[in-house]
Design goal:
With 106 residues, the chain is mainly alpha-helical. It has 7 helices and no strands. The protein binds iron/sulfur cluster (SF4) (2 copies).
């Protein structure tokens, strides 16, 4: 089990209120708004924390680079993927890799 899977397991054991508080805390720390790919549409829709929430809903499709690899929050929870606003959440990208028979990059 890698760091991300351990994080998910520990989050799953928390109460719904604790989970909601944790997500709100992560969202407040997410530096996506300073990324070149982030745009006004996403800002107006309060979209952030795409690594957890998944793809941007109708706002972001133009890839201008991704700041996720430099994100301390991403390192803290053990993310291995990036460009979550366009490609989907960490969980979705891992599942896609599994489906297509590639590795989880353990
Ligand atoms: S997920 Fe990555 S590419 Fe998308 S806005 Fe956040 S830092 Fe930028
Ligand atoms: S890894 Fe990317 S989407 Fe997740 S909190 Fe950091 S900047 Fe935001």
């Amino acid at each position: 089990m890698d760091k991300f899977e351990q994080t998910m397991e520990s989050v799953a054991k928390k109460s719904p209120k604790e989970q909601a508080d944790l997500i709100a805390d992560f969202k407040s720390k997410c530096p996506c708004p300073s990324c070149p790919t982030y745009n006004n549409c996403a800002s107006k829709a309060s979209e952030k924390l795409f690594c957890v929430t998944g793809k941007s809903f109708m706002c972001i499709s133009d890839d201008k680079g991704c700041s996720c690899p430099q994100c301390s929050l991403g390192k803290e929870v053990g993310l291995k993927h990036q460009k979550f606003c366009i490609k989907g959440s960490e969980m979705a990208q891992r599942y896609e890799n599994t489906l297509w028979g590639t590795s989880l990059n353990r």
